[in-house]
Design a protein that fits this description.
The chain contains seven helices and five strands, in the order H-E-H-E-E-H-E-H-H-H-E-H. By secondary structure, the chain is mainly alpha-helical. The protein has one domain. The strands form two sheets. A three-stranded antiparallel sheet has the order 3-2-5. The protein has a two-stranded antiparallel ribbon with strand order 1-4. The protein is globular, with a radius of gyration of 13 Å. The two termini are 24 Å apart.
Length: 140
């Protein structure tokens, strides 16, 4: 599934938000899907950027926008029931946090730290996400 579909679903569930916050919620949705569903939500790479994990394709789709209300080309109906449940659990835990809090949290976690140490824009692999998040207390 394209990342735009996941992002559109998150916006419909949580309302408009900054581009940075949307990136972090997309990242945490992907990360926890690797643990809870043993699969990825979307196929695009997550990369380690200065402000934390970023999906370049989503960044490019929202380039120049501070607040995002919808994603051009995003289709929330493509998100199936199991994926919706995963995203709902992520939003329950992370959804009320602000963008800076989420960015700071990603900077304390190994998937971003390890990838960023190899150089900016290095991929944060689904395997790295799964290995790390399976060892910590899950989001409720």
């Amino acid at each position: 599934m394209p990342v735009k579909d996941v992002a559109q679903y998150i916006l419909e569930m949580n309302g408009p938000m900054t581009s940075m916050k949307l990136q972090k919620l997309v990242y945490y949705s992907q990360a926890w899907a690797t643990v809870w569903d043993d699969d990825v939500l979307f196929d695009e790479q997550v990369q380690a950027w200065d402000n934390g994990p970023v999906v370049r394709e989503l960044w490019e789709a929202n380039k120049g926008k501070f607040k995002i209300g919808s994603v051009d080309g995003g289709d929330s109906s493509a998100v199936n029931e199991a994926q919706r449940e995963t995203i709902a659990r992520v939003l329950d835990f992370y959804g009320a946090k602000n963008a800076q809090w989420l960015s700071d949290l990603t900077h304390m976690e190994d998937p971003w730290k390890d990838a960023f140490a190899q150089g900016q824009n290095t991929e944060i692999t689904p395997q790295a996400m799964s290995e790390y998040y399976s060892t910590i207390e899950p989001a409720h």
